[in-house]
Amino acid sequence: MKKKFLIITIIILIIFAVDFFLFSLLSNKKTIEEPIKPEGKIVLKAFFNNNNLDPEISCNKVFSVEREVIKTQAVARAALEELLKGPTEEEKSQGFFTSINPGVKIQSLVVDNGIARVDFDEQLEFQMGGSCRVSAIRAQIEETLKQFPTVNSVIISVNDRTEDILQP
Fold it and tell me: Fewest CB within a 10 Å sphere: which of 2, 27, 44, 63?
């Protein structure tokens, strides 16, 4: 009788152990199937004009979109790079557009004593015209950089020239 009781007890323990093991596997499977949040990412803003949010298109009025990028110490440069990419297709469908020419490159960016000095290549001025467009470009660049507490003002240059750039 004691042998039967011992055998039944062992069988029940084995069944519980197998059940616990299978339950653990299934529980881990659910965890694995959940979307994995990207590690090392940050959210930055890029500022664009938007004809839905500003139907009068007041030139220097810009609106932010959020972009997720790989974490970096050079957040201001990363934000400008996102600005230069222009709005995504989804953002375009929401009325966002850019006044900045495609293919513009950042040659240098230095932030010192609250002043961001950003130098672009000549593509920024290519076939440039109109005071509204010039104001829009300035607003896009300035607001994208001023999102950071270390930036109070922005100096824009093209090939190290500051005086005669972005003229209507």
Answer: 2
pLDDT reported for residue 1: 67
What does pTM read for this prediction? 0.75
Tell me how far apart the alpha carbons of residues 41 and 20 are, in angstroms, rounded to a whole number. Answer: 37
**One-letter amino acid for residue 154 of the chain:** V
What is the mean pLDDT of each successive set of 10 residues along the chain, which is 168 residues long?
68 66 52 51 96 88 97 96 98 96 97 97 86 92 97 96 80
Q: 129 CB contacts (<8 Å, ≥6 apart)?
A: 168
* Residue 141, pLDDT score: 97
111-116: long-range pairs with CB below 8 Å, 24+: 111/76, 111/148, 111/150, 111/151, 114/150, 114/151, 114/152, 114/153, 115/151, 115/152, 115/153, 115/154, 115/155, 116/76, 116/145, 116/151, 116/153, 116/154, 116/155
94 HSE (CA, 13 A, CB side): 12
Which alpha helices (H) appear in the chain, and where do they start and end? 2-33, 75-85, 89-93, 131-146
**144 within 8 A of 80, measured Cβ to Cβ:** yes
- Contacts of residue 152, defined as CB under 8 A and 6 or more positions apart, other chains included, come to 114, 115, 146
pLDDT at 9: 67
